[in-house]
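Archive maintenance. Older records in this collection stored only the sequence; we are now back-filling the structure field for every entry so that each record is complete. The fields below show one back-filled record exactly as it appears after the update. Entries are processed alphabetically, and Peptidase S1 domain-containing protein is next in the queue.

ARCHIVE ENTRY
Title: Peptidase S1 domain-containing protein
Organism field: Neogobius melanostomus
Length field: 264
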Amino acid sequence: CNTPPSVCVTSCCVSSVCGQPPLNPRIVGGQAAPEGAWPWQVSIHRGGGHICGGSLINNLWVLSAAHCFRRGSASDNTVYIGRQTQENTNANEVRRTIVEVINHESYDDSTNDNDIALLKMASTVTFTNYIRPVCLAASGSTFHAVSLPWPQNLMEVEVPVVGNRKCKCDYAGVFLITDNMICAGLEAGGKDSCQVLNSRWIQSGVVSFGRGCALPNNPGVYTRVSRYQSWINSKITENQPGFITFTSSGTDSDLSASCSLVPP
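Back-filled structure field:
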């Protein structure tokens, strides 16, 4: 692959536009996101209110978490793309009903392992400055830093990835952390919730679970997207999402993490 160092793009058609927000050239941590900053962010509604977030990954499919769809039918869910706030009218948003929900066949609701789902919309969306797909981390990607939004107004925050060895230590005896998961958060707490490379944003995790909210040494736990490239491509056989292999630079501090559960 002759692309820039540490990145390899696959699925050419979607990857030509994925992960490139025209109205947001850089991240601004911990404040309200400008309109159009995250054009792949999806608000999923059921029963008249927001229940979960998701990501637009091509013009017909949304990536989300399986724990959001444990019950009910696909048509119970509506998605809003291009939405900036849950409080006011959003001039740039579009609305779609969901016609199919595919939870991972090995999703375990007791451990939240394989907490990933695909949602098929009733019709395609047109890409605009406010509506675009995100790139997905390809198999073999490694990350040392991650972020994700949604309160009443779309927010953005930058938090570091916590290596799985340290994450296992932080949650020893509380949660099972598997290789299908990726953790992120500050040791001191205070922030919680894509990695940017050459102006492209790559989604590395899907929000899954955690203990409390932004507590010290209690990182958020996400489904590791790169573990599911084959699964996603097996379900979406046309206009497949854009996958990018990303390799973090620098030293992996997680190699030195140890505790009784994770020996040196």
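Update note: The chain has a mean pLDDT of 81. The longest strand covers residues 94-103.
Entry marked complete.
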